[in-house]
């Protein structure tokens, strides 16, 4: 609901989120299909449903066996060939070959670049479409609440606004290719421990499985302002499907939770697509149907499908609800024109194209420079020609690419494990790329990948010609669906490896190849650790991307999407080992928590260095009056998809334009990410500051650019738990333009009154 008494009313319907000059997501060059409106699609779906028997309709509420991870039954008499549902968020997964392993969510988020958000999704969509897959099971947008969560690498980090931006552009990039996006895992699925525990089928109720999974217990404000935020962004973008999760929410399983599925998603957010279960997350039949679940996946549990026919005949489930379920299932199919010339299903078909190019670009753009003492980076091949390389994470695994499904097999990491894993056609490790660079630039390279061979490592420092070498130490940390990390330390005594090398090498550069947060305290202050590069999970072009950064062919500009703490306890949240995960921190998560309790982290959310420097000036705050401001006008014009959700777009109307000038005052071409943090009046009971805007700006030496950011209705609102609506607080709002969440990095400051 909207409080019209406190909202600034603007009549035009708008595109979602901050206007960014460099985003060309509206270009027809990226669109494969001519989509329909939701009203048109729903009408066509209803016409189809009218032709089905009760048995046929019920059968379509449950998955069936087939070629894909999930399959919807065909209806041959109506020329409907069924639907294919397939993982993963970062490429065509589930063991499918001839697919690209794109950099995962955590890496694309670290680029802070909406243009790349969109282009990555376009490329992913092209591969799903090329293989004839109808529903892609992504994006994953669960918030990085717990640093040890095994699936953080699939998502977009610890901030709901940044996650929402990523989710929005993923949905539109994918659906512009005619592939239905699936927002997951709905909702509050922030740990793997106790996420699902099936005991047995209930002996009294045959349509129920005894079920104990952890319950995420949280208040209404926290739900709306943190965990629901990116899902709302997805719905606003026009997402066709939402996947409910394994866990419980405030005591009720997520896939039969009337509050989250019916009231929040379908009513408040006006979501018109379908809700599918995560695989095996359905625990009841009738309760799930009435609670808002539309299709049970993979369907082997016998809880829905044909088992619903008796419940409909007895009146326990209204047939109108079954009709609604199938209408919601088929509406996205018609919405994106899958009924018109969509490719036939062939998971072995090659649809890779030249996606290695965008893969490499994203890999580079998401690499973060954390430490660079005396500008040790980038390397100059005319003066830096001797390199010692240490660590198994520098090279390929003896068993393949270094990661596999659910297990870490050693070697460089390109992605994490679980259902989000993509079987890549290839992957290039850093050592291979470094040796290629050596061939071209006549570098001298020696490497030791057995990081447990301490004697050999110590002896290497005295090698002839290497006494003044640069030492590259590669460490990694892996995680996967199915289990949470035991700690936040590097794998295989990585901290010890860094300490040993730093003790013997005065110019040690550490490359951190990690799924998410890591504790760096064992070595970060060592005087010989002069450089730290957070490579993250750069995808299959890892090696070339990293070498381009190390040698200055690409100026790093990635930024952290979480805080790196000095102590694990500093985060204030952790994995629950009981059946209850209590979100007592409320909206004070990650940098918001550090701000509230005045905790100094090692590296702040949003932090990342560059090889050049920038200046900021001329901050202005203007009301976004319709038709009078360039940025607001362009912002509105970019909303051209027919499939966006018209109902909730009123929340995303421009209210203010924030403009300022950024100049590259350094010596090389590079990029910076100005971040807009907003401080609310006391009435809102918000954290000291929250992220509400950003743009990655690329500038030549001496070049200046005026940046325009938009604040929307929702951006300046808080969730009023009493009135149950978004409301704008009366009073003074503070605007900070910063290069991280660190107050010391604030470049410009101003305010406005409402």
The CATH class of the largest domain turns out to be Alpha Beta
Low-confidence runs: 1-23, 198-202
The tally of structural domains comes to 3
Span of the ends, CA to CA: 21 Å
Instruction: Give me the Rg, rounded.
Output: 26 Å
Categorize the overall geometry.
Answer: globular
GO molecular function, one term: beta-glucosidase activity
Catalytic activity: Hydrolysis of terminal, non-reducing beta-D-glucosyl residues with release of beta-D-glucose
Pathway: Glycan metabolism; cellulose degradation
EC number: 3.2.1.21
Characterize this entry briefly:
With 754 residues, this protein is of the alpha/beta class. It has 18 helices and 31 strands. The protein folds into three domains: 60-68 and 84-199 and 208-336, TIM Barrel (Alpha-Beta Barrel), CATH 3.20.20; 372-582, Rossmann fold (3-Layer(aba) Sandwich); 613-753, Immunoglobulins (Immunoglobulin-like, Sandwich), CATH 2.60.40.10.
Describe the protein's architecture and organization:
- Keywords: Carbohydrate metabolism, Glycosidase, Hydrolase, Polysaccharide degradation, Secreted, Signal.
- Its main location: secreted.
- One of its GO terms (molecular function) is beta-glucosidase activity.
- This protein has a 6-stranded mixed β-sheet with strand order 1-2-3-4-8-11. A 6-stranded mixed β-sheet has the order 12-19-18-17-13-16, sandwiched between helices.
- It has 3 domains: 60-68 and 84-199 and 208-336, TIM Barrel (Alpha-Beta Barrel), CATH 3.20.20.300; 372-582, Glycoside hydrolase family 3 C-terminal domain (Rossmann fold), CATH 3.40.50.1700; 613-753, Immunoglobulins (Immunoglobulin-like).
- It contains 18 helices and 31 strands.
- Strand 28 (717-720) and strand 29 form a beta hairpin.
